[in-house]
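Exercise: predict the fold of this chain.
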Amino acid sequence: MYKGKDRKTIPLFEELFPFGGKLDEHNRWLRIAELIPWYELESSYRSYFSDIGRPATDARLFIGLILLKHMTGFSDREVVRSVQENIYHQAFCGFEHFVIGKSLDSSSMTKLRKRLGLKYFKELEEKTYGVLLDRKIIKGKGLLVDATVFPENIKYPNDVGLLNDAREWLVDTIKPLGKRIGKTYRTYCRKAKKTYLSFSKRKRRTKKIIRRAKREMLQYVRRNLKQLAEIIHTLKGLGHEISRKVVEKLEVGRRIYDQQYEMYKEKKQKIEKRIVSFHRSYVRPIKRGKGGGKNTEFGPKGALSYVDGFLFLDKLDHDNYSEAGKDIVKDQIENYKKKFGKLPPSFTGDNLYGTRKNRKLMDELKIRSAFKPLGRRGKSPPDRWWKKKQKERNRIEGSFGHGKVHFGLDCVKYDGKDGSEMWIRLGIMGMNLQTALVRM
């Protein structure tokens, strides 16, 4: 059940200012609060709860905590504590009187995120950007596009470690489920742990050592998979219900075993749809195609647009794709048109975007493109406008770095595919709100 708060127009925290004082109206949190359409978001928030039952968390409190979290880089616990200690954070979250105790348990934030889902956070993003557009803080100028990978919060994968993660979960699941049918299974967990630790502590690992450790871990995992499958079959025969999480994790364990066994037998390093994390099985390795220390990244790839200093997410996928595809570029132009009510006056991307299909699309839409001229070098030298636009393209690269350093986009911490997109959209939105604050 959701009961909305009766927002009064009395001075905020008047009990703290008995001599006519007031909060600093130029404080950044009060100014950012002016950009959030609280009442529209509250009416939408209400629809996620029934008309009966225990009253739900106040909409403004939850939205305020989420935005504070992604603008400050705090964890759930830290952001709840900061609201308890900071009067301006309390004002941002909709409090009218100073609250000493804890406003919300940090675990409730996780539960509410899962309840509301990605759809609500997209609505939060859309309505907030609508306010920025109405107030003309964002102006429709040229469109810059590029793509980047947002790394997931996983350890760097290796085959033996991945098999060990699957084995540990299998052993931890076999023991309690085995007790339910009154049977003890020999999992060889101590011996397997000793094998893995002996391998992981080696500073120098030859191909022979890696292959031997992998063979042993495959044997342990195969045995544990067979044992757990037998337990589940027995429990189902006795009429017991198996949780969906156990069934899904067992399937992930089987896929990891099948992939690693195939790679071991055929002595190959690559396989299609390769799983690199047991606990986040949707993550895929994505080649950067650039020099430097990190040739491969593990996380979703995003195609983004940059307009007038603001960054927007157009497409996100854990599978690798070409960001210069005609359909993606067309969608980015359509998203621009939805926001600003017109086509962009110019379109700028790196050399990858300069395909013949994209050039043809720009000609059809009559959009001036900053693609590198075709033909031999020197035959048709690029003009000054092209050089200027290519220099401007550095801005979107800079915004990627700014978001990853200051707004948590270098380490996605929410679980699940939808969780990854929530984290990225909220991080980008926090960055855009800070940009809007400077413009106000």
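Check your answer against the key: DSSP finds 15 helices and seven strands in the chain.
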